[in-house]
Every structure is written in structure tokens, then in C-alpha cells.
């Protein structure tokens, strides 16, 4: 019974405490209600989730003189100009058939007894190349037959003189002289035939003259041929040109047949650039060839500063009218005039050519003329998706400008002349991607450098 009484009094005590706390809170409400209201204002509501306003993107960066030097950055004033849109086609430098290389053959059967010029040597027309000891029986017989015909003719002429005196004395009838004249005519025809035979075997007039005197040939010298003329039709004296021994086909002591190739001589002054185009490009190439448009050639692995400037005007000479069945391409040809340098070693002259067969090139064919545009190097434009920018220099500052790209290739970008870039603007000629990265890095640290501001035309100036 006592336990129940105690529980009742405990419950009454807790009720009294709660009532007291509530009464105190009610009496002091003027002090704590303003504090709750301020806290509620500072806490975000469920409906207040709008994003923070975007930070304006920065379009100007600062680049010191040292930094520009490290980037090898140069600026140049732009101008409005006309520009040819071009297509690029791969090509290769090749020999010019019938002009570049010259095969040297043996006119007769013989044994190589001496080699006078070796691979890499320069030889001029008339220089000795080989000495051959002749071992041809038909040649020896042809020489013998010519000599015999010459001697027979001399004998007949002597007989004519003797018979002529007898005829005058009446001892011999006149018909004998007719027979001797006919015999002389037959011998003359025979001599001419033997001379033609020896000429066809490669002997010259001087050698045949020696054979007539009884000096039979047992050895001959093979000499470098004359340069007959340039491909353009302009005659060239033999002393003006030279050949290079490109390849020897025989060694000392080799026996060769008539017509065997002894060596390959080359003169790489006149070459071809052979392009490889697809059929869909045929109409563009034909138009360029028919319109006599100049084309540009970019030579791979070339060091221009080591040579004279190229002044040749490159044009398409002709297009092949057949298509390669495997690659589905056709060839076209551009003449190329080479540049040589010579040096002497151990008494011999050697040549170094600027361009060599097998060297790769890139051929740029004009297809369309674009009027009143602005042209900058490809590295002067930074592109991201459909957007493109260039950087205008103003002292140490570079202002990024949005531009419209009309055309681009490996080397250049053509910009629309729409007022975004005006003639006379100094634009960075390269490193546009690097400049954009620097701009992003500087943007993360805040606005412009202290004391600088941007005018309405986009230019940046220091404090006035």
C-alpha cells in the first residue's frame, strides 16, 4: 500500500516540473522567439536550390617576353587576300624514262680488260669507261673481208692501167677494159657492204679506216655517250653536262656478248614527280592541267637552307590514262629540275643531288580560288568542336577572339573576313593550343592583372 502511494506522489512531482517549465517558457517568449526566426531565415529551404550565377569566362591572358621566347611565339599583322583552296596528294620523285638513265652496252663480243670509271664517278661525254679485248670470230672475218676487198680493188685498178696501154697499142681488144670496170664496180659495192657491217657492229669511221690499212682491231674502248639535248628541246653541248656511273654490271675479266649491258649511267638533272590520285580527283587534276595552274610541292626530308631557293614553276605535264587495278589510283607527272653540288676526292669529281628518286613529296593541287579572306598558319587557330579562336597580341597581353573558319589544310586556316579580325590586327602565328591552356590556368586565379581593363572593342589597356 505504501509503494502505490509513493508512485502517485512521484507522478504528481513530474507533472509539477513540466508545468513549471512550460510557464517559464511562456513568460520569456519575447526573448527567445526572435532568435528562432533569425535562424530559420539563415537555413535554406527545400525550395531554394537555384545554382550560383556563372563566373564570366576570361578572354585575355598575360604572357611575359621570356614566356613568348620559350614558345617561340611571333605575331604578324593580318591582311585580306585571295587564297587558292587546294587538295593534297602524295607523290614520289622518280627517274625520267629515256632521259635520266643511260645503259652502256658492248657493241662486240669481248673480254673486259680494264675498267676506267667506277660507281659514283662523274664522267663527261667521251671519257673512257671500259677496255674490251675482242674475241668475236665474225668480227675478225668482217675485218678480213673488208681488207681483202680493198686489196682486190687496188689490184684491179693496176690491171686497168696495164690493159689501157695494151689497148692503145692494139694488142688487147677494148672489151677487156669494160670487164675490168665492171669488176671495180663490184668491188666498190662489196667494200661498202663490209663497211656497213662493221658500222652496225659498233665501229666508228676512224676504226674502219685503220682496218682498211690492215690494222685489225683486237681491242676497243667503250666511251661515255654525248648528251643529245635537254627534255625541253634546248640543245646542250656535250661539255656542259656529265653522267654519274650509277651501277657497274661487269667486273674485270668478264666475257660479254654483243649487246650486253656493261654499266648504267645517270644524269639526275631532269626528274619527274609522280603523283598518285584517286579516280574521283581526276576532274580536278585535269582542270588544273588544262588551265595551266601552278601547283605547290612540299619535299619530305629536305633541308632548304642548305640549297638555293627553288624558282621553278611546277605544273602538271600529263596524266596517265590507265588506273592501277590494285590501288585504284592513277598517276600524273610533274617535271622537276634538280640541283647539284660537286666535290673532288683523290683526283675524281663527285656529285651530290638535292632531290633523289624515291624521295616522298606532298603535291598541293589548286581547285578553287577564295576571294577576300584572311589566311593564318594552322597552328595559329585553336579549335574545340564547332568553335575556333585566334589570339590578338597587345604588348604582354593576348586577347582571345572567336573566328569563323572557311577552310583548313595541313598548313593554313582560312578565316572569314566578317569583322571579328580586322586587317592590321597582330595575331599570334602559332602555339594557339598552348595559349588557350595558359588562359585557362590564369582564369582559375581571378580576373585581369591589377591596373588593366578591357575596352568595348576587346582591346586591353592599363590604368589611365
The N- and C-terminal alpha carbons lie at a distance of 98 Å
CATH fold name of the domain at 108-114 and 124-243: Methane Monooxygenase Hydroxylase, Chain G, domain 1
* Helical residue percent band: 25-40%
The CATH architecture of the domain at 108-114 and 124-243 would be: Up-down Bundle
Describe this structure in words.
By secondary structure, the protein is α+β, with helices and mostly antiparallel strands. Among the domains are: 2-42; 89-97 and 267-367, Beta Barrel (Elongation Factor Tu (Ef-tu), domain 3); 108-114 and 124-243, Methane Monooxygenase Hydroxylase, Chain G, domain 1. Helices cover 29% and strands 32% of the residues. The protein is built from 8 helices and 26 strands. Strands 3, 12, 13, 14, 15, 18, 22 and 23 form an 8-stranded antiparallel sheet that branches. Helix 4 (137-169) packs antiparallel against helix 5. The longest helix has 33 residues, at 137-169.
Short description:
The protein is built from eight helices and 26 strands.
What is the element layout, followed by pairings?
Layout: H1 2-27, H2 29-42, E1 60-62, H3 65-70, E2 75-77, E3 80-95, E4 101-105, E5 110-115, E6 122-123, E7 128-134, H4 137-169, H5 175-200, H6 205-212, E8 219-223, E9 243-248, E10 255-256, E11 261-266, E12 270-278, H7 282-290, E13 296-299, E14 318-319, E15 329-337, E16 340-345, E17 348-353, E18 360-377, E19 382-384, E20 387-394, E21 397-402, E22 405-408, E23 412-415, E24 426-428, H8 432-443, E25 452-454, E26 460-462
Antiparallel strand pairs: 1-21, 2-24, 3-12, 3-18, 4-11, 5-7, 5-10, 6-9, 7-8, 9-11, 12-15, 13-18, 14-15, 16-17, 18-23, 19-20, 20-21, 22-23, 25-26
Helix pairs in contact: 4-5
Amino acid at each position: 500500500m505504501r509503494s502505490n502511494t509513493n508512485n502517485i506522489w512521484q507522478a504528481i512531482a513530474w507533472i509539477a516540473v513540466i508545468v513549471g517549465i512550460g510557464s517559464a517558457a511562456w513568460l520569456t517568449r519575447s526573448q527567445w522567439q526572435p532568435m528562432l526566426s533569425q535562424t530559420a531565415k539563415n537555413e535554406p529551404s527545400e525550395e531554394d536550390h537555384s545554382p550560383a550565377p556563372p563566373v564570366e569566362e576570361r578572354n585575355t591572358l598575360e604572357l611575359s617576353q621570356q614566356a613568348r621566347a620559350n614558345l617561340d611565339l611571333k605575331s604578324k599583322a593580318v591582311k585580306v587576300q585571295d587564297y587558292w583552296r587546294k587538295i593534297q596528294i602524295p607523290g614520289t620523285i622518280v627517274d625520267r624514262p629515256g632521259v635520266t638513265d643511260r645503259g652502256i652496252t658492248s657493241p662486240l663480243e669481248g673480254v673486259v680488260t680494264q675498267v676506267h670509271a667506277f660507281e659514283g664517278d662523274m664522267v663527261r661525254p667521251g671519257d673512257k669507261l671500259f677496255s674490251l679485248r675482242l674475241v668475236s670470230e665474225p668480227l675478225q672475218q668482217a675485218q678480213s673481208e673488208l681488207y681483202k676487198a680493198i686489196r682486190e680493188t687496188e689490184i684491179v685498178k693496176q690491171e686497168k692501167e696495164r690493159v689501157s696501154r695494151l689497148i692503145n697499142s692494139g694488142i688487147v681488144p677494148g672489151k677487156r677494159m669494160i670487164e675490168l670496170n665492171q669488176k671495180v664496180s663490184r668491188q666498190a659495192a662489196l667494200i661498202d657492204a663490209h663497211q656497213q657491217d662493221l658500222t652496225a657492229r659498233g665501229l666508228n669511221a676512224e676504226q674502219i679506216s685503220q682496218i682498211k690499212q690492215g690494222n685489225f682491231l683486237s681491242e676497243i674502248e667503250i666511251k661515255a655517250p654525248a648528251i643529245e639535248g635537254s627534255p625541253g628541246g634546248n640543245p646542250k653541248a656535250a661539255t656542259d653536262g656529265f653522267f654519274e656511273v650509277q651501277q657497274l654490271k661487269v667486273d674485270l675479266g668478264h666475257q660479254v656478248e654483243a649487246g650486253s649491258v656493261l654499266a648504267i649511267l645517270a644524269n639526275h638533272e631532269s626528274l619527274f614527280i609522280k603523283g598518285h590520285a584517286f579516280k574521283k580527283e581526276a576532274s580536278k587534276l585535269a582542270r588544273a592541267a588544262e588551265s595551266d595552274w601552278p601547283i605547290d610541292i612540299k619535299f619530305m626530308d629536305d633541308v632548304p637552307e642548305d640549297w638555293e631557293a627553288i624558282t621553278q614553276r611546277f605544273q602538271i605535264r600529263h596524266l596517265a590514262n590507265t588506273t592501277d587495278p590494285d590501288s585504284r589510283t592513277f598517276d600524273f607527272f610533274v617535271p622537276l629540275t634538280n640541283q647539284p653540288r660537286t666535290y673532288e676526292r683523290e683526283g675524281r669529281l663527285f656529285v651530290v643531288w638535292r632531290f633523289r628518286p624515291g624521295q616522298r613529296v606532298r603535291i598541293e593541287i589548286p581547285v578553287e580560288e577564295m576571294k577576300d579572306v584572311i589566311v593564318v598558319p594552322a597552328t595559329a587557330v585553336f579549335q574545340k568542336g564547332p568553335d575556333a579562336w585566334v589570339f590578338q597580341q597587345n604588348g604582354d597581353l593576348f586577347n582571345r577572339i572567336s573566328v569563323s573558319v572557311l577552310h583548313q589544310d595541313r598548313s593554313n586556316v582560312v578565316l572569314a573576313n566578317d569583322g571579328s579580325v580586322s586587317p592590321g590586327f597582330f595575331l599570334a602565328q602559332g602555339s594557339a593550343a598552348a595559349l588557350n591552356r595558359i588562359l585557362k590556368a590564369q582564369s582559375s586565379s581571378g580576373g585581369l592583372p591589377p591596373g588593366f581593363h578591357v575596352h568595348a572593342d576587346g582591346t586591353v589597356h592599363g590604368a589611365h
